Amino acid sequence: MYKVKVYVILRESVLDPQGQAVTHSLNSLNYREVTDVRIGKYMELTIEKSEREINEVVDEICHKLLANPVIEDYRYEIEECVVQ
């Protein structure tokens, strides 16, 4: 069994209005050293597959459902779960 941590974020070329709003708010609170914020999504999946198949399955899940491949990029980390 594996835990997969998935991170999805808008591509650099795509305008991020939420990120711009947070950047503006932080600057208004005198955090002027913050020059850019990008807002994304974080998900954890628990998957029962062999280590050999896990990358293929996670890529398929991300491409079909978790990320919009036109405007978002994703990355993931795989950890083996210890079953007690």
UniProtKB/TrEMBL annotation:
Record's keyword annotation contains Transport: no
Top class in the EC scheme: ligase
Protein keywords: ATP-binding, Cytoplasm, Ligase, Nucleotide-binding, Purine biosynthesis
Pfam families registered for this protein in UniProt: PurS
Keyword ATP-binding applies: yes
Single Gene Ontology MF annotation: phosphoribosylformylglycinamidine synthase activity
Subcellular location: Cytoplasm
Catalytic activity: N(2)-formyl-N(1)-(5-phospho-beta-D-ribosyl)glycinamide + L-glutamine + ATP + H2O = 2-formamido-N(1)-(5-O-phospho-beta-D-ribosyl)acetamidine + L-glutamate + ADP + phosphate + H(+)
Leader sequence residues: none
Pathway: Purine metabolism; IMP biosynthesis via de novo pathway; 5-amino-1-(5-phospho-D-ribosyl)imidazole from N(2)-formyl-N(1)-(5-phospho-D-ribosyl)glycinamide: step 1/2
HAMAP family: PurS
Similarity-based family: Belongs to the PurS family.
Assembly and binders: Part of the FGAM synthase complex composed of 1 PurL, 1 PurQ and 2 PurS subunits.
Protein's name according to its UniProt entry: Phosphoribosylformylglycinamidine synthase subunit PurS
Organism for this UniProt entry: Neobacillus paridis
